[in-house]
Amino acid sequence: MARVTAATCGLSDESQSTRVIIAVTCFFVGTSVFVVLRTWSKLLTRTLYAEDHIITLAVTLAMAPFVCTVYMSALGFGSHLWRLKDGALLQILRLFYISEIVYVVVLALIKVSIVTMYLRIFWAYRPFYIACYFVLTFILLSSSIITVLTILSCRPVQFFWDRDIAGGSCLDITAIAYANSGLAVLHDVTIILLPMFMLWSLQMTRKKKFFIGVMFALGGIGLVATIVRLQTLRDFGTTPDPSWEWVPVVYWTSVELAAGIIASCLPAIAEAKKTLSQRVNSSA
Hints:
Blueprint: H1 2-9, H2 17-45, H3 50-75, H4 88-121, H5 126-151, E1 154-155, E2 169-170, H6 173-193, H7 196-201, H8 206-231, H9 242-245, H10 247-283
Antiparallel strand pairs: 1-2
């Protein structure tokens, strides 16, 4: 019916599906390069800490949204509703539901990994150490609440993707999405500001301070991506054309996750570079 109406009214048949696949693939491959470098650095330095296990879990789980997005695009995500084949929207919404849940978990794990690294590095500074534990607890509790709300956003769960189920109902999905992104912004700002004054008060070379600045800049990119993503959620739960209107949400979700994972990998890569330089100099 939608296709007949679209043809009669001359509605747009534009598609963003290919662009979506290219964009998320580039982000995934780029992120994977840094993860491989991080793994190599751990083999080189023979060190493995709690944050390494956490980020490995995050990266492994992050494969799910990537695979779901590619499959969604193959089904027509990125196209207008009236261009989709029969039953495609139901499958797209089911995959999007899975991706949203995993996204919340992955984002939390990335931030937990970074704060865990703070705890390891600055364990001797008790006030900072205690502050990190408060931040860690806040991230875990707030992310757990958002995860549960996302999972149970509709009753029955299947009503999220199949609105033909009799008696089904949903919470305010847009409000949940806003709450998630709002908390993500708060988490990012806290994580960026938490160690800043301490780091710059320590005795470091300009080169090391510059590298730390780059790491914070990447965290800033993730923060900007979260804020922009927040702006794309205005009609998230009410749009009649989700296969088209949700594309910006997917774009900025990819940027947000990629920036967070890359930022978490940089310290380990820097340590490997330092170890490699020392070995080269000692053998010279």
